[in-house]
Amino acid sequence: MREAVRSVLGQTLPPTEIVVVDDGGEGEAKRVLSPIRQAAGIPVGVVEGPGRGPGAARNAGMAEATGELIAFLDDDDLWLPQKLEWQVEWFLRRPSVGVVGTLWTEAEGIEGVDGAAGRRPPRLRRVSRWALMKANRLATSGVVVRRECVERCGRFDESLALAQDWELWLRMARNWGVGIVPARLVVYRRHEGQRSADRARMRRWEGEVVRRALEGGGLGGWWLEGVGRRRLAWAHGRLGRLLAREGEIEGAITELRESMSIFPYNPLVWTSLVRCALARRGWAGAKP
């Protein structure tokens, strides 16, 4: 947490305030950050989180923030110094853009990360609704949004256990432009345990996000709805293949059949379904 806050304070364009949400830390954030808060030069507030997951914690932080732009940073990630400056410049240039992200890299720290070469921000890369529907292109720790965008589109959906960020970007993209500064300005410090944890849960909730986007309407045409349906089929197919590899044959068959019912032309899904059927019958050599 200390390093994350220091990376915010080290911005070439510092923010006007920092809001830290202590979600279940029982006052730990105030103790850890006390020396930094005294020397920060800008307000560093600490608020108690509701303890209902990352979406609720981010909503609590947004409720306390007062700026016209709101940036997010998880406590184990870091910003490179030019991040905010370059994003703010593009917000000033493009009034119709409501969401600006950056690229990111995985590393232990900022040292040796050459993500911001040059003195000027690179050209903003537009993220179409088509591209955003196919996959979440934005890492939350790299995103800045306009307050007006939040007020019109709403906050993170706390009913989603995972993928709340993707669901919010999809909602915002209905009425606002979305862009990425194509520079690696965020250091994502992934823990080893995160690499294989909860992949099946993530696939399930990704499917739920796409389903809500389809049911909510307003996607802008049959072609984007088609992209959404294929993305939903892909989520079920990926989940089915993952369950098959883990030996959960019945669950795998259910997900693979659901994928086929939405988009029946994926040979990988057909192949996996046949292998699961053979494995369920106990045929020798049949491996899902």
Secondary structure blueprint with pairings:
Layout: H1 2-9, E1 18-22, H2 28-39, E2 44-48, H3 54-64, E3 69-71, E4 78-79, H4 83-93, E5 97-106, E6 125-126, H5 129-134, E7 144-146, H6 147-153, H7 164-173, E8 177-188, H8 199-216, H9 222-245, H10 249-262, H11 267-281
Parallel strand pairs: 1-2, 5-8
Antiparallel strand pairs: 3-7, 4-8, 5-7, 6-8
Helix pairs in contact: 7-8, 8-9, 9-10, 9-11, 10-11
Please describe what this structure looks like:
This protein is of the alpha/beta class and 288 residues long. It folds into two domains: 189 residues, Spore Coat Polysaccharide Biosynthesis Protein SpsA, Chain A, CATH 3.90.550; 86 residues, Serine Threonine Protein Phosphatase 5, Tetratricopeptide repeat (Alpha Horseshoe), CATH 1.25.40. Helices cover 47% and strands 15% of the residues. The chain has eleven helices and eight strands. Strands 3, 4, 5, 6, 7 and 8 form a six-stranded mixed β-sheet that branches. A two-stranded parallel ribbon has the order 1-2. Helix 9 runs parallel beside helix 11 and helix 10 runs antiparallel to helix 11. The longest helix is centred in the C-terminal third of the chain and has 24 residues. It is globular and about 70 Å long. The relative contact order is 0.11.
